[in-house]
Specification:
The protein is built from 17 helices and nine strands. The chain has helices at residues 2-10, 67-70, 111-122, 138-166, 171-183, 185-196, 201-206, 211-221, 234-250, 272-285, 289-295, 299-306, 333-355, 358-370, 377-384, 392-406, 415-421, and strands at residues 19-20, 26-31, 34-35, 43-50, 53-64, 82-89, 104-106, 317-319, 322-323.
Length: 427
């Protein structure tokens, strides 16, 4: 229950009677300090009065006082400035590395707080705090969703920055890799990023004006040209021959294992073959796409830049060597919106962070606020709880809430969880 003790200390949910150390020194908490999620004490720069003497320093929290020694804090210089040890059970007397006794406070969460916390942790339904949501003010909801949206932007920007570093600072390649990942959507996202990592963008650039060669490299590196079935059609065999030539010419990486692609329960339009063909067409027709997207001023222009389709062969195919009912394989409006939300807008924000450009970050935020909310099971769940979801900004915030807080049962860092623990009930 150490996490709950952190919560009680941070939010100053203390007993009504005066606080005292185990040595009966009176404690007045002026400021509990700033929570630290990294190495070192749990709270920085706390301000306390201990027997009317003002102390400024750090606070460490444990369930048992003996954990001070079990974790090696008595010899760790990071803990030299700890001014108070907060515990549930004082099973040992604690000393600093210089031999001075460390003031210790025994603090117990109230029965009400403990009960509500256990309800949140043990609930089998999502979200466990659903009863409190209809009673929340618009200000509370808006401020928390705004914070979650910024958090999601920062998380995606960090992922893009890591991808950019692996690609040696090539923003165009980073855009394509991010785009590829999101063309795979949730089911094949990892496989598409793995595939993009096997592409040689310098080799591709030399054949950018030749769609057939791009397709040969794309499908070959995806491991989709390795077999030669008896029923292989002419287009497949030509791609296979071209790929073998280009792979030797450019010393391309080994193709990925085709078993990495998942097709079970996928709609045919989402088959990797179709998505790769659409990416090949987009790459062929959209030179300097990153630069163009970073300069767009409205979502309509951005969506037009992302428009793509598959070549004529795919009009009658969803996979190689098997005819299907004729259907042009254009990417749909719903898919385009998702790609804009999950690729272009995060790239705008990440680029703005990288360049220190507030204009790019603000444009990313504006684009997100101007798009309709996503429609998926996560958003429908929150709507059923009484939340109004009006834009993609709201839906992205709620996806962040579900994945980073609800799924991890991290209710103590959630504003909705805070309101639940306060005892607010459905009106």
């Amino acid at each position: 229950m150490e996490a709950l003790l952190h919560y009680v200390w941070r939010h100053k949910i203390y007993p009504l009677e005066p606080l005292h150390t185990t040595k009966q020194q009176r404690i007045e908490v002026i400021d509990p300090g700033l929570p630290n999620r990294h190495a070192g004490p749990d709270f920085f720069n706390a301000k306390l009065k201990i027997d009317d003497v003002l102390w400024v320093g750090n606070v460490e929290i444990h369930t048992h006082a003996s954990e001070w020694y079990a974790h090696g804090h008595d010899h760790d210089p990071l803990y030299a400035n700890v001014i108070l040890h907060v515990v549930e059970e004082a099973d040992a007397e604690v000393f600093r590395s210089n031999g001075e006794p460390l003031p210790t406070l025994i603090l117990h969460p109230s029965k009400e707080i403990t009960q509500r916390y256990e309800e949140l942790q043990k609930a089998e339904f999502y979200p466990p705090c659903y009863e409190v949501i209809p009673s929340l003010s618009r200000l509370i909801v808006h401020s928390w969703l705004s914070a979650l949206q910024v958090e999601r932007f920062q998380q995606k920007a960090e992922n893009i920055q890591a991808r950019l570093q692996r690609l040696e600072g090539d923003w165009e390649a980073c855009l394509f890799t991010t785009l590829a990942r999101n063309f795979g959507f949730s089911l094949n996202g990892d496989a598409f990023e793995l595939w993009a990592g096997r592409l040689n963008f310098k080799a591709l650039a030399k054949h950018r004006d030749q769609l057939f060669q791009i397709e040969a490299i794309f499908f070959g590196q995806a491991g989709l040209l390795e077999d030669t079935p008896i029923t292989a059609d002419e287009y497949y065999l030509k791609l296979q021959t071209e790929y073998h030539y280009l792979r030797q010419k450019f010393s391309l990486f080994a193709p990925m294992d085709a078993s990495a692609w998942r097709m079970l329960r996928l709609r045919p339009n989402n088959f990797p073959h179709v998505r790769i063909a659409q990416l090949a067409y987009l790459y062929h027709h959209s030179e300097a796409l990153f630069s163009k997207l970073m300069e767009v001023k409205d979502v309509v222009t951005a969506l037009n830049l992302l428009q793509t389709k598959a070549n004529g062969y795919w009009r009658t195919h969803y996979v190689f060597n098997a005819l299907s009912i004729p259907c042009e394989k254009r990417i749909g409006a719903g898919s385009l919106n998702l790609i804009l939300i999950n690729t272009v807008i995060p790239m705008l924000y990440a680029y703005g962070m990288h360049r220190g450009s507030e204009e790019h970050c603000e444009r990313a935020t504006h684009f997100l606020e101007s798009l309709k909310a996503e429609n998926n099971h996560i958003i429908r769940m929150w709507e059923q709880c009484g939340l109004s979801v009006t834009s993609a900004s709201d839906s992205q915030a709620l996806i962040q809430l579900k994945k980073q807080y609800c799924d991890r049962r991290d209710c103590l860092r959630c504003k909705f969880g805070y309101e639940y623990l306060k005892g607010r009930t459905k009106s």
